[in-house]
Amino acid sequence: MTADVSILNATKVFGAFRALDDVSLDIAAGEFIVLLGPSGCGKTTLLSILGGFLEPTSGTISIGGRDMTHVSPAKRPTTTMFQDYALFPHMRLLDNVGFGLRMRGMAKAERDEKALSYLDLVGLRASAAKKPHELSGGQRQRVALARALAVDPDVLLLDEPLGALDLKLRRQMQDELKAIQKRVGTTFVHVTHDQEEAMAIADRIVVMNKGRIEDVGTPASIYMRPRSLFSAGFMGEANFLPAKVRGLSANEAEVETALGRVALPASAFVSGMPAAGRDVTLCIRPEHFRSASAAVPTVSLGRGRITGSAFFGTHHRCHVAADGTALTAHLPQTEEPEVGAELDLRLKADSIVVLQDGAGVGH
Amino acid sequence: MRRLTAALSALYAGLIYLFIFLPVVVLVLFSFQDGTLPVPPLNGLTLRWYEAVLSDGKLMAALGNSLLVAVLSSALACLLGFLAAYAFARYRLPASALLRGLLVAPMTVSTLIIGLGLLSVLNVTGLRLSLVTVGIGHVVINLPLCFAVIYASMGGHQVNIERAARDLGAKDWQVMALVTAPMLMPSILAAFFLSVTFSWDEFIVAFLLSRFDVTLPVEIWSMLRSGLDPKTNAVGSLVFLVSVAFLLVMELAVFRKSGRSS
Amino acid sequence: MTATPLERAERRKAWAFALPGLLWTGLFFLVPFAYMAMLSFWTRQGREVVATWTLDNYVAFFEKAHLFKGLVVSLEITAAVTVISVLLAYPLAWIIAERVPKRWQRFALIMAILPFWTSYVVRSYSWLLVLSKGGVVNQALLWTGLLSEPLELSANRTGTIIGFVHFFVMLLTLTIYANLIQLSPNYRRAAADLGANAFQTFWHVVLPLTLPGIMVGAFLTFVLCIGDYITPQILGGNNELVLPQVIMLQLGRRADFPMAAALSLVLMVVVTLAYVACARWLKMERT
């Protein structure tokens, strides 16, 4: 089963601390949503409110069109997969997975069969009689997933479920999680602080900071067209270049930076055209400095000097000094950047994103 | 040098072990005394003091009373301690530290004072002294212990496990009965058996708060008035034997269990 | 902050869980204790308690030698027992933790506390078999000719102290061993690595690190010892009484509950002072 989720003006206050500040979000049925942000950004609070472990101070939560704001976890069509898995240590895997069905009054034979089928889904059918402490971290994580899915929830809430796994296993589990989500069709809401994980699994990413939503969109749109400084900085690396808007025309604007004046197409202004004289910030991804082909319109930020360089496999990461401004540029792996060499800081005009200070979806 | 320390260590340990075991060995040895005084010389061996003990109706009744009081009062202390520990570990209650302090306070007060206080109040209320009043006193003594032991074992990592159960549809009593209690069973059992041991051996409260039906320590106490008596040796040896057997069974059970799970 | 409906329901549940235990402790511990505190300021006429507020009982405690001496004797015996027990138990705990092979340690420990499992009353009684004039020790010494007269080992302070030390050596061996075994062997390796010899390592590293555990055990010894009635009653004779014996005496002969209550409060105050004195060692925390 699956259902849509609607969060309207949710606010949660702990004493003097606003953990969640007027958050609204609509999630479509069957969507894989990732709540992304640093610790303390409110993502786990939002997940707890969805699961019913916390009640919002104000605002409403509805799932499948029904108001769930004050409904207890047990009566919600949601289940949660906890960060520490929270498997029942004294029960066999079969009983762990069958627990929710048992609570729903399902007869033993039927519930064992269903539990087995879910253990099968996560590849642990053969270990059904084992206890959780006999499993590895990755296996426990699978059991937790099977247990949460066995009761056929409309929405599965995942609280940093991959956080305790090592990097390689985490990448593998991400793929499995995504595949299982596509198979069962349940709406997944997944919390993480790992932006690579978010990109690997999400249909849409919700970037959160200080209790607010900064940005919502597909991984590509958030990376390529971030709508807030925080979002741009949190998703991958970015150069931020302060600028002032000088001239405006219908489809272009001229901004002045420390590296000279550049004309940018209107599409670069993701949060609308600013007034002349406004302070803005140019956001430039380091890898965009290498796309200086003549066929497309480009802008130039003059020339810079490479002050340091390191090889990262997929690229060279170079520190560049240009007129007293420090920049980071990723050069193709085939190049051999040398310290002291000059670099032409030219890039596609449409790869630059201009952000206004204080911009963001929730602001 | 190394040899010398080893030898000195062995000598010291031997002497202390001798000190520790001397009274027990003498107690057991002279419980077989073929005579009326349980002191040297040993006249010969006999089992008649054990016969005397086993056919002593008052002693056997006291033994039964002790078991009854120990098991029931410990079970109650564990139940109350578990519920309170659950409340304080899982919920935020106002004045939590103060109330927890109240719950463990009896642990810091001499049992003599606890018994005396209860006795004074019972005198006023006119409630008759009986095994029930002894049991009430033993719950007062053991509740702090049960609470402390169980509370200490309620780690934060179990919160999510209980949440998961609730999330999967378990009602409060189901969470407690199917998840929390089984998960904490080792510490609940430890608290229970410690309580049983204390209650079983407790003298002063049982002495102050009982009248006609008494527990074993009180009955043995009254036997002491007749001075040294091999029959007292026999009772003491029997209590010792049963306790050690019980300990052995527990040790083996716990050992087997921990061996299996590691 | 206003509570949401669910939070209010949760709080009601929390109280429902906590209340039985709290009520029990309140009703059967706090109320009797408060009543006893009140009683200690009342007095007695014949066998009747009279509710008149007076300090007479406390004044009597300080003025009447047979009452005050109970406290003095209690303190002297308890201090001696605590010190002797720690001094005897520490080396044994150390030997078990350091000298006994790992797989035998549990056995050695269980053996060291095995006599715990005799009844408390019987344990004191069995010391009587050992220490009395006709007892094992005196008989053996007389037989070997080392003595011509039996030693006065029981029915006096020596008997009480031996009986107590026996019990608390077992208890302290257990607590000190638990403390020693928790020490990481790396402390000792580090000390040895930095040039300390065995004695220096013990004195500068092991002993300070186990001191908190010793203090906890010593405090426990103090509290249990000063409140005990049985051991001095069986082994101590009639010449000098400890405070608990004096308290019980008020009950038995004269049913003087107010006086017994006042003496109990004195005992409480002494224990509380001891607690305050070593409070910084006794922090009890949830792990």
Question: What labels describe this entry?
Answer:
heterotrimer; A: 363 residues; alpha+beta; Rossmann fold; OB fold (Dihydrolipoamide Acetyltransferase, E2P); six-stranded mixed β-sheet; B: mainly alpha; MetI-like fold; 12 helices; globular
Outline:
Chain A has helices spanning 43-51, 93-103, 108-121, 137-150, 167-184, 195-201, 219-224, 229-234; strands at residues 5-14, 17-27, 32-36, 58-63, 66-67, 78-81, 155-159, 187-192, 204-209, 212-217, 239-248, 252-257, 260-265, 279-284, 298-311, 315-322, 325-332, 342-348, 353-356. Chain A is α+β, with helices and mostly antiparallel strands. In chain A, strand 16 (315-322) and strand 17 (325-332) form a beta hairpin.
List the helices and strands and how they pair.
The complex is a heterotrimer of chains A (363), B (262) and C (287).
Chain A lengths: L4 E10 L2 E11 L4 E5 L6 H9 L6 E6 L2 E2 L10 E4 L11 H11 L4 H14 L15 H14 L4 E5 L7 H18 L2 E6 L2 H7 L2 E6 L2 E6 L1 H6 L4 H6 L4 E10 L3 E6 L2 E6 L13 E6 L13 E14 L3 E8 L2 E8 L9 E7 L4 E4 L7
Parallel strand pairs in A: 3-8, 3-9, 6-7, 7-8
Antiparallel strand pairs in A: 1-2, 1-4, 4-5, 9-10, 11-12, 11-14, 12-13, 14-19, 15-16, 15-18, 16-17
Helix pairs in contact in A: 2-3, 2-4, 3-4
Chain B lengths: L1 H28 L18 H7 L2 H34 L5 H9 L6 H15 L5 H22 L4 H11 L4 H12 L1 H17 L2 H6 L6 H9 L5 H32 L1
Helix pairs in contact in B: 2-12, 3-6, 3-9, 3-11, 6-9, 7-8
Chain C lengths: L4 H35 L3 E3 L2 E3 L5 H8 L1 H34 L3 H11 L7 H12 L4 H9 L12 H26 L2 H9 L4 H29 L3 H6 L7 H12 L2 H21 L10
Antiparallel strand pairs in C: 1-2
Helix pairs in contact in C: 2-3, 3-7, 3-9, 3-11, 7-9, 8-9, 9-12, 11-12
Number of helices of chain C: 12
- Report, as a whole number of angstroms, the end-to-end distance of chain B: 40 Å
Name the CATH superfamily assignment of chain C.
Answer: MetI-like
* Domain module tally of chain B: 1
CATH-defined fold name of chain C: MetI-like fold
Tell me what you see in this structure.
Chain B: Keywords: Cell membrane, Membrane, Transmembrane, Transmembrane helix, Transport. Chain B: Residues 63-250 form the ABC transmembrane type-1 domain. Chain B: The chain crosses the membrane at residues 12-32, 67-89, 101-122, 134-154, 175-200, 234-255. Chain B: It is a multi-pass membrane protein. Chain B: This is ABC transporter permease. Chain A: InterPro entries: AAA+_ATPase, ABC_SmlMolc_Importer, ABC_transporter-like_ATP-bd, ABC_transporter-like_CS, Mo/tungstate-bd_C_term_dom, NA-bd_OB-fold, P-loop_NTPase, Transp-assoc_OB_typ2. The complex is a heterotrimer of chains A (363), B (262) and C (287). With 363 residues, chain A is of the alpha+beta class. Chain A has two domains: 5-233, P-loop containing nucleotide triphosphate hydrolases (Rossmann fold), CATH 3.40.50.300; 238-356, Nucleic acid-binding proteins (OB fold (Dihydrolipoamide Acetyltransferase, E2P)), CATH 2.40.50.140. Helix content of chain A is 23%, strand content 36%. Chain A contains eight helices and 19 strands. In chain A, the strands form four sheets. Chain A has a six-stranded mixed beta sheet with strand order 6-7-8-3-9-10, sandwiched between helices. Chain A is elongated. Chain B has one domain (20-261): MetI-like fold. Chain B has twelve helices and no strands. In chain B, helix 2 packs across helix 12 (230-261) and helix 7 packs antiparallel against helix 8 (172-183). The longest helix of chain B is centred in the first third of the chain and has 34 residues, at 57-90. Chain C is mainly α and 287 residues long. Chain C has one domain (49-279): MetI-like fold. In chain C, strands 1-2 form a two-stranded antiparallel sheet. In chain C, helix 3 (65-98) runs antiparallel to helix 9 (198-226), helix 7 (157-182) packs across helix 9 and helix 11 (243-254) runs antiparallel to helix 12 (257-277). The chains are: A alpha+beta (363), B mainly alpha (262), C mainly alpha (287).
